[in-house]
Amino acid sequence: MSSERQVLDLVDRWARAELDGDADAFDDLLGADFAGIGPVGFVLDRAQWAGRHRGDLKNHHFAILEPSVRLHGDTAIVGGIQEQRTSVRGHDVDHAFRLTLVAVRRGDDWVIANIQLSGPLQDPSAPPPFARPGGPISRDELRAAIDAKAVTVVDALPAAPYRRRHLPGALNLTAEDAARSAGELLPDRSAAIVAYSTDADCDRGPALVAELTRLGYPNVRLYAGGVEDWAAAGLPLETGS
Question: Within the chain, where are the H helices?
Answer without folding.
Answer: 3-20, 26-29, 46-51, 139-147, 159-164, 175-185, 204-214, 226-232
